[in-house]
Amino acid sequence: MIEFVHVSYTYANAKQPALVDLSLRIDEGDFVLVMGASGSGKSTFLRCINGLVPHFYGGQWAGQVCVAGRDTRRNDPRQLADVVGFVFQDPEAQMVVEVVEDELVFGMENLGISPQIMRRRVEEVLDQLEIAHLRRRRVTTLSGGERQRVAIAAVLAMQPKVLVLDEPTSQLDPHTAEEVLTALQKLNADLGLTIVLSEHRLERVVQYADHIISFERGPNGPPSVTIGPPRTILAHSSLAPPLVHLGRALGWAPLPLTIKEGRRQVVAQSLDDVRPADAPPATSALPAGWRQRQPNQHTPPAPVLQVDSLHVRRSNHAILHNVTLDLHSGEIVAIMGRNGAGKTTLLRTIMGLEPPSQGRIMYQGQNIAALPVEQRAKQIGYVPQDPRSLLFQETVVAELRWTLRQQRSAAATPEVEEDRVRRALEMFQLQHVATAHPRDLSGGEQQRVALASILVAEPAILLLDEPTRGLDYEHKTLLQALLNRLKDAGRSIALVTHDVELAAACADRIVLLGNGEVVVTGPPRELLNSSLIFSSQIGKLFRHQPWLTVDEALAGLGQQSTVVEEQPSDQKAPQPTAKP
């Protein structure tokens, strides 16, 4: 179905090639997962399949890509549209009409499909992705996750032979992500749809994959590409989900890819019965009065930020209702909930980008609800879901310097500002792209630039909306360490996230929103351990233990940390092959 023959490609004005002499084949009906670090070439590889590379991006091309017998050099993306459906990393990039139902129809109209068939297909994709309630909504009113589902539905409605998806679950809550991936797996199994999917959150999708294509960029050279079965690739990759890291550390064979497989190992080794003396008892139900529970038993200091009885309405529709939230100095609060629950609206309202219809927003005891955004920005840093909305300078360095110019104080000398820029670049490992145009970077690199451009001003409060979107495991670990350092320095952080693993690793408190209201709030150990949906892989694996992360589980079991792992001597690293 898809064949790459000695493909090499370099973007215009790029210093290094994105792909070098790549040859591989994907058969009809394969479900292929593409993984790799940010900027390793995954998105470039996907764009080759529908002809965006090189037709749209230009640059230097060599080799051949054939999809369903069509040479992508002789057929541009428009001519391949009936064969290849492409879902972009950023769903906003492919929305062209105002109403959801019209968006679903648009692609089919361009293919000349009859109205009767279009109506049937619209109903099918609305049901498959559970978005029937959105059919008459305006696209601009949808949350990021809702837009992502609409984008997938619009492509599925055209019924392509090959479906290519670039991080399709990056903005989806755990339940919705599972539903979308289950629908894709069913289409793959029942209809033989060939699926090529790139994803950083491997724990969500690895169980569905027949093969993995792994991109690994060398320190000073082009990426190497390894292809093989999921267990073979993950047995040696540093980019692996928590369950796999735990299985490797404990020597489990076969290596578990699903919680069900991991549970068999847990039961076989009687690990459920381990009760370390220094671990708190596991909880199976919400404690009484949890809504008022504080992160510790001592009298907390006055909150830095207070949201009091906040109401937000949009077009006579209630988005937030009576939301009350405190944020203390040196605290990380993770705001979670399903898509459309009001999480992003809450952050935007705190920042002054959405007007409240009722309620107060207090910063250090003063109501700032009437202050303009530029005044709030002196103390509050906000990184939105779409990092590109912050990026408009010619270089990465210019982005950071622009932020400092807006926040410049009389005490800050040019030398101090340049030192801040240098430290921010180092903090997010962006030195190698310092002079690059931000919009030429990968999605993960853009996310890191956006974070750096806000943190360079050292705000007292940090509001992050899906901060791990586009980040690989390595850079997510760096972000976790950075957030903990900021917390230790007394900063206050509120992050909206669907990344349960991030919340489990660094949050002091979880706030769960539902239908615009605070449903419950409490410590991660209690909230995530007792949740059927918002639970980490380790929390699901050890249902009777208080562990949420790999390191907590290994500590409880008396094992070493997972930072360095020895592989069994009889396992050899997979080698590149021409066929998955």
What tags apply to this protein structure?
6-stranded mixed β-sheet; 580 residues; 20 strands; 4 domains; Rossmann fold; alpha/beta; single chain; globular
Rough outline: globular
Which segments are poorly predicted (pLDDT under 50) over 5 or more consecutive residues?
279-298, 560-580
Q: Reading side by side through the largest sheet, how are the strands ordered?
A: 6-7-8-3-9-10
Strand content: 15-25%
The number of helical elements comes to 20
The CATH topology of the largest domain corresponds to Rossmann fold
| Assembly level | single chain
CATH superfamily of the largest domain: P-loop containing nucleotide triphosphate hydrolases
Distance between the termini: 13 Å
The whole-angstrom Rg is 24 Å
What is the topology?
Layout: E1 2-10, E2 19-26, E3 31-36, H1 42-49, H2 52-55, E4 60-67, E5 70-71, E6 84-87, H3 100-110, H4 115-128, H5 144-156, E7 162-166, H6 174-191, E8 194-198, H7 202-205, E9 211-217, E10 223-228, H8 230-234, H9 242-250, H10 259-268, E11 305-314, E12 317-327, E13 331-336, H11 343-351, E14 358-363, E15 366-367, H12 373-376, E16 380-383, H13 396-406, H14 414-427, H15 443-455, E17 461-465, H16 473-488, E18 492-496, H17 500-506, E19 509-514, E20 517-522, H18 524-529, H19 537-541, H20 550-556
Parallel strand pairs: 3-8, 3-9, 6-7, 7-8, 13-18, 13-19, 16-17, 17-18
Antiparallel strand pairs: 1-2, 1-4, 4-5, 9-10, 11-12, 11-14, 14-15, 19-20
